[in-house]
């Protein structure tokens, strides 16, 4: 499943953020068929294109793409040693496609910090150390097995080298994700190990007003976690925002000097980090954004709607969003030659408006 696991030390605001994610029940109303598990929170991907498209087609409702987050409780020092919560924690985190680390920056004498002081760098290092130790254990188990296979010529020496390169990165205390480029890691040889620190990371800094209003302080924190993406939000504010209607929420954001809610940012950055994009379908009933991976072909995109659409794929009628809006109607877009017929090999673009033709 395309979920992002939320991790963080105790008392950093994970539950507060997670409650905001699950109470964001506009979604539950829009997706009555989705089974929503108690530890999964969804946010919709903000997409101003949907309303414009819905106007052209007179659609009765809008269905944005969504991003799901899983609450992965239980990271503390020693989690990688598999004590108590440790094993369950590791299993949950393995299933997530990306990892969002909540890091406490807000200062509040009433909220105890597990290490006695607010120190984003140290928190991030504590979490990363646990993940790195878990990965080192995985690699130490794999190496003798792969060495043997290489000797028996069942596997390439390059695979073993890739694993040993990864081991070096971890031994010096870095995550795989942050070292892919700098250490030229051969990721295809590491895939089967399911390393935790090879997953894309997003850092969610839980901050107060002072940091929300300080680009300088945000730049420092960004620097700390680069090349991973960072977002800045106030978990308490987010929890309040989901209780308000749209206009009130916008007003409250403005009062806090923000253009976009933290949950919206989280959806956008998460979507990007997961390597996803959307294509659109539109008609009188609904205008909808569908989630696909960058590089997916037209039949794969059709399969997201229904597996029968992929199996019986014949062709796709495609017009880019911008062209359609400029033309003002499907009819006019066709007259202008902007509507293309694409086949099985077509690689989808973000913002393609599509109608599939298929055999059943
Ligand atoms: P968790 O242990 O990481 O799940 O943390 P919680 O979400 O339970 O938060 C711990 C405490 O910090 C609670 O009392 C929250 O109300 C408080 N808290 C969470 N986020 C913020 C924040 O942004 N600012 C302040 N001042 N307090 C917060």
Automatic annotation (TrEMBL):
Entry-linked InterPro entries: ATPase_YchF/OLA1, Beta-grasp_dom_sf, G_OBG, GTP-bd, P-loop_NTPase, TGS-like, TGS-like_dom_sf, YchF_C
UniProt keyword rRNA processing present: no
GO molecular function: ATP binding; ATP hydrolysis activity; GTP binding; metal ion binding; ribosomal large subunit binding
Matches recorded under Pfam families: MMR_HSR1 (PF01926), YchF-GTPase_C (PF06071)
Binding site for ATP: 11-16
OBG-type G domain segment(s): 2-253
Keywords, comma-separated and alphabetical: ATP-binding, Magnesium, Metal-binding, Nucleotide-binding
Assigned GO CC terms: cytoplasm
Entry-linked SUPFAM superfamilies: P-loop containing nucleoside triphosphate hydrolases, TGS-like
NCBIfam families xrefs: redox-regulated ATPase YchF
Protein task: ATPase that binds to both the 70S ribosome and the 50S ribosomal subunit in a nucleotide-independent manner.
Family designation: Belongs to the TRAFAC class OBG-HflX-like GTPase superfamily. OBG GTPase family. YchF/OLA1 subfamily.
Protein name: Ribosome-binding ATPase YchF
